[in-house]
Amino acid sequence: xxxxxxxxxxxxxxxxxxxxxxxxxxxxxxxxxxxxxxxxxxxxxxxxxxxxxxxxxxxxxxxxxxxxxxxxxxxxxxxxxxxxxxxxxxxxxxxxxxxxxxxxxxxxxxxxxxxxxxxxxxxxxxxxxxxxxxxxxxxxxxxxxxxxxxxxxxxxxxxxxxxxxxxxxxxxxxxxxxxxxxxxxxxxxxxxxxxxxxxxxxxxxxxxxxxxxxxxxxxxxxxxxxxxxxxxxxxxxxxxxxxxxxxxxxxxxxxxxxxxxxxxxxxxxxxxxxxxxxxxxxxxxxxxxxxxxxxxxxxxxxxxxxxxxxxxxxxxxxxxxxxxxxxxxxxxxxxxxx
Length: 338
What we know:
This protein has 338 residues and is α/β, with parallel strands linked by helices. It contains 15 helices and nine strands. The longest helix has 25 residues, at 168-192.
């Protein structure tokens, strides 16, 4: 029997409200910090399948979440496409060479980088309780492209946006490569045991409506169609952070099975405007989870009330922050589970 998360993602209202939190495996947990101190840097952990599986399972053991999200990173796809990937202390990820400087064709693909990720999924699925859903993921093409073009993250994605306007053919070739690699990557995760997958488009909110259609919706349609053709029973969650008023169009046009909603969106508006019966995931502000207390209670209750009568996965509007008190996570779970 599927657990409540998988049941909800398939469009049913489960007997128990499912809950998981983006970035639930990570730095706010002392057991994660201890393992990282023992094993070394972030990327070393990601490519150590046994360590990555242990990190994925840590929040399940502690909190009993209904979904286990693979411990990995959206930049594994650029690494597999041939860019060098490093995570520098205090600076975040760096990719080289930058695709604003060199042609995509100059890269030498390295698809073996996917193999340890698939093994992590296999190890997790073997150890998870049967009713806990194993979640795989990939970054959406626009968000991944912003890093590949600029070589690092930025506040306004100026380099990628300029290239998308100024040289749409070259930028489109990058998007095409990410799409094909992501289809392979997600399919491999599913074959290894992932029961649902999420597409993270963390920087979707930086685009104009026309560019959103071209670089967010159209590539997502291609990934959804291809993955669904191979794995028709696997739910696909789309999470276009910052999409705001473009969310209904994204929901209608991409064909995703469920929609992640970030904390800037009024949940009552989302419930009213999104397609009837579409499963929704979200959307508590991660900073409310840090603040705790009565404000956390009120915020969680508002989200629950907004999505009454709709298949709903309780989650945050983005990833859990490293400073989040564990007691506040426990308090949230008590509210959600009644």
